[in-house]
Model the fold of this input.
Amino acid sequence: MGVTPKIAPSMLSSDFANLASEAKRMLDFGADWLHMDIMDGHFVPNLTIGAPVIESLRKHTKAYLDCHLMVTNPIDYVEPLGKAGASGFTFHVEVSKENWQELIQKIKLKGMRPGVALKPGTPIEEVYPLINSENPVEMVLVMTVEPGFGGQKFMPEMMEKVRMLRNKYPSLDIEVDGGLGPSTIDVAASAGANCIVAGSSVFGAPEPAAVISLMRKSVLENQEKC
Ligand SMILES: O=C(CO)[C@@H](O)[C@H](O)COP(=O)(O)O
Done:
């Protein structure tokens, strides 16, 4: 399997009042990406950040900003997020059934990497056309909790989706998000996930660097077994 591990602390669990220093702290601890949860209070019952915050953070870091759009109208965010310096733009398949081709094209034109996310209740088959397309997404985010809040319990039953994706697409970036940490990483990594988002388990740890390193090791070890 040729996909590298990417450990992405979810900045939703950070102290938003000190976002730049929290980001630096995570990168110093060994994070590969910074996961940025953008919520509109409509697609999910929570409201977080948008392009102005991404733009402010971009002034302080060159890191890959992995933006997860939990919004009803992702197309409206492409231009502002591209301008703000987002790196990845992952939209939800549930709200993009009509316009995903246009959306992927626009995301790439703005210099971002397109990804598609799916909620726990959405069958994995719904993302296949977006991967098989001539202009495909480059990452699939399998949500392992209902999107909206940090600190929820990992749903192991989502691993069947990860396994199906990995069998079909050996070199695809497959991200998991929600309830990941030392007690759940092996299940996710052995199913084939290589991009790991973790909020409370990293920010709440006495030694976040140890948690990041343990999760990377698990992804690498499980890949060696394949
Ligand atoms: O997108 C979300 C929640 O919607 C996540 O990124 C959470 O922020 C992950 O937090 P933990 O479950 O790891 O605490």
